[in-house]
């Protein structure tokens, strides 16, 4: 089957994983990844993120379903499919006694790519590894080892790059460097799929977001549309005099008291036609509750993620 440049670069249909005498790790996942996008897969530990990546990369065998990578069946045409994929795993395991340059160059040859010293040099420079090219992996810091894993994954110039918890255990500087690198890769046409516990990572970079919990893909949505659809807003009234409890007359709006009674908070859905704010403020005034400041704030992607996962429980 030849690749169709107009199709999704990755298509999963009914992909499931049932371990013998064990739990179902994935429940019939359907997912299309658009060519050239950054897709963030969010989920708590044990949600199925790594299992899904491992199946696409051929590390784990699916119990059911089909996987097409750039039009190539990942089972019937494994080599062609795998050649298009780069994987940066969570673990830092690599060839400890090899040099950085040898490790990355070998990864390129492993996928049948002809030697290209200029490309490898550019890659190592992009990852701030060129000065360490002769160093043995065992002598590198954890952050540098993480950079080597990224270089190995990119050595054969894949079209689809998986980053499995790329920021786990790395410092803020490296995390920012990786974000810059990921954006530059996307600009070159590489499709990025990342799993992360750092919600800020998805909020910062992703074009679309998928949320997975207990092996079920709960939703896939453009990030901006998701935040418009599910995002809540908070209206905070900073009171002149603190309250000991919420007046019963405000029960209709279910506000809460924050900051030792100094802030009265009303949470509402910004997409609702009637937010309830006018009535809430009117009742606050009728009760003689004076406030010196009024502030609204959007919910973050983290708030949305937590809310979705809690619903699944």
Automatic annotation (TrEMBL):
ABC transporter domain boundaries = 10-239
Origin, by domain of life? Bacteria
Check the record and name the Pfam families matching this protein: ABC_tran
Please provide, alphabetically and separated by semicolons, the GO molecular function terms listed in this UniProt record.
ATP binding; ATP hydrolysis activity
Keywords, comma-separated and alphabetical? ATP-binding, Nucleotide-binding, Transport
| Name assigned to this protein | ABC-2 type transport system ATP-binding protein
Species whose genome carries this gene? Sphingomonas abaci
């Amino acid at each position: 089957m030849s690749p169709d440049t107009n199709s999704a670069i990755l298509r999963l249909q009914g992909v499931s994983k049932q371990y013998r005498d064990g739990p179902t790790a994935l429940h019939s996942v359907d997912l299309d990844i658009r060519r050239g996008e950054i897709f963030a897969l969010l989920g708590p530990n044990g949600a199925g993120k790594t299992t899904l990546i491992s199946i696409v990369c051929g590390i784990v065998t699916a119990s059911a379903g089909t996987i097409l990578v750039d039009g190539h069946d990942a089972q019937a045409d494994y080599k062609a499919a795998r050649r298009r994929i780069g994987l940066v795993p969570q673990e830092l395991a690599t060839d400890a006694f090899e040099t950085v340059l040898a490790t990355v160059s070998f990864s390129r040859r492993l996928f049948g790519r002809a030697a290209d010293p200029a490309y490898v040099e550019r890659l190592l420079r992009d990852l701030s590894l060129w000065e360490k090219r002769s160093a043995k992996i065992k002598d590198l810091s954890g952050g540098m080892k993480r950079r080597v894993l990224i270089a190995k994954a990119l050595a054969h110039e894949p079209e689809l790059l998986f980053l499995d918890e790329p920021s786990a255990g790395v410092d803020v500087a490296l995390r920012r460097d990786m974000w810059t690198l990921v954006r530059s890769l996307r600009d070159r046409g590489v499709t990025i799929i990342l799993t992360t516990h750092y919600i800020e990572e998805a909020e910062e970079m992703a074009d679309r977001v998928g949320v997975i919990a207990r092996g079920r893909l709960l939703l896939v949505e453009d990030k901006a549309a998701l935040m418009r659809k599910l995002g809540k807003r908070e209206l905070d009234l900073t009171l002149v005099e603190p309250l000991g409890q919420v007046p019963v007359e405000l029960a209709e709006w279910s506000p809460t008291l924050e900051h030792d009674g100094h802030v009265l908070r009303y949470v509402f859905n910004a997409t609702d036609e009637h937010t309830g704010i006018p009535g809430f403020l009117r009742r606050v005034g009728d009760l003689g509750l004076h406030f010196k400041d009024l502030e609204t704030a959007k919910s973050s992607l983290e708030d949305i993620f937590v809310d979705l996962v809690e619903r699944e429980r």
